Amino acid sequence: MQILLNTDNNVQLDGELLQRVEADIVSGLSRFSDQITRVEIHVSDQNADKVGGGDKRCMLEARPAGQQPVAVTHNADSVDEACAGALDKLEALLDTTYGRSHQRKGGQSIRHLPVSEELI
């Protein structure tokens, strides 16, 4: 899974925050790593030109193999909180999408189980 980070001109990320965000994405989406080819992180400051503006926005875009990309956004006071909120939303979205695609109505038949001598 490839991770790409994009920021606007108003957001400055230090190396520690960047590594923490990437580590959170890798650990949070590890169960989907065989289905997702790339995750793009877009971080921006929505109110950079206003005094006291602290509205950070994180958009996560996941690109599943062979399917259309899915994206979620989250706004918060800090970049860390915005990325954590977006990651929670993306995990829920992927869990819903892939959880449903692997579940079928009904369960496995019991006919494949061996017959016990005690029951006869």
From TrEMBL:
<dbReference type="Pfam" id="PF02482">
    <property type="entry name" value="Ribosomal_S30AE"/>
</dbReference>
<dbReference type="InterPro" id="IPR003489">
    <property type="entry name" value="RHF/RaiA"/>
</dbReference>
<protein>
    <recommendedName>
        <fullName>Ribosomal subunit interface protein</fullName>
    </recommendedName>
</protein>
<feature type="region of interest" description="Disordered">
    <location>
        <begin position="100"/>
        <end position="120"/>
    </location>
</feature>
<dbReference type="InterPro" id="IPR036567">
    <property type="entry name" value="RHF-like"/>
</dbReference>
